[in-house]
Automatic annotation (TrEMBL):
Residues 15-154 form the Flavin reductase like domain. It comes from the Bacteria. This is Flavin reductase family protein. Keywords: Oxidoreductase. It comes from Streptomyces cylindrosporus.
Length: 170
């Protein structure tokens, strides 16, 4: 992608934290590539970098947790975007509970859902899409959502040293 792009430079998507768990192994990362992709049934797609630690856990998981953050939760975004889960236990630093299918649910976020992974979409790039169907949801915080532009100061904790402007952490 060009260094400066007239189209993508205008985008400012909401950011979320995606979590995955398999047994005792937990992972989570900050993600900006996600969207609702179906009305009936309701489904979302979250795109995870193949270089990310969370991607490996997600490939083995049956469900993913998807969490929206408010603008005042920059510290939570920095934890999941700036640290690599291969090097630290991010979940020791936050309140969480176990959700449907063993998924990790961050309890102090704007809104969340646990989605059953229905399929993976490999578009041949550096991210793979996980199509998830929500089966459990909740929320606890009001306020405007955290957006990409408010996270650009976070140095990615990406394990392969290939920072992604819309997904980091690991």
């Amino acid at each position: 992608m060009p260094e400066s792009d007239a189209f993508t430079d205008r985008l400012d998507p909401e950011m979320c934290v995606v979590t995955a768990a398999v047994g005792e192994r937990r992972s989570g990362c900050l993600v900006g590539f996600f969207s609702q992709c179906s009305l009936e049934p309701v489904r979302f797609t979250v795109w995870l970098s193949t270089a990310n630690h969370t991607y490996e856990t997600a490939r083995a998981a049956g469900c993913l947790g998807v969490h929206l953050l408010t603008r005042d939760q920059h510290d939570l975004a920095a934890l999941f975007g700036g640290e690599c889960g291969a090097d630290s236990d991010k979940f020791a630093q936050v309140r969480w509970t176990q959700g449907y299918g063993g998924a990790v649910v961050l309890t102090d976020v704007a809104a969340w859902f646990v989605g059953r992974i229905e399929r993976c979409l490999d578009a041949g790039g550096d991210h793979v899409g996980f199509v998830v169907e929500p089966v459990q949801w909740g929320g606890r915080r009001e306020g405007p959502l955290l957006r990409l532009r408010q996270t650009l100061d976070i140095d990615p904790g990406h394990p392969a040293g290939r920072p992604s402007p819309t997904e980091s952490g690991g």
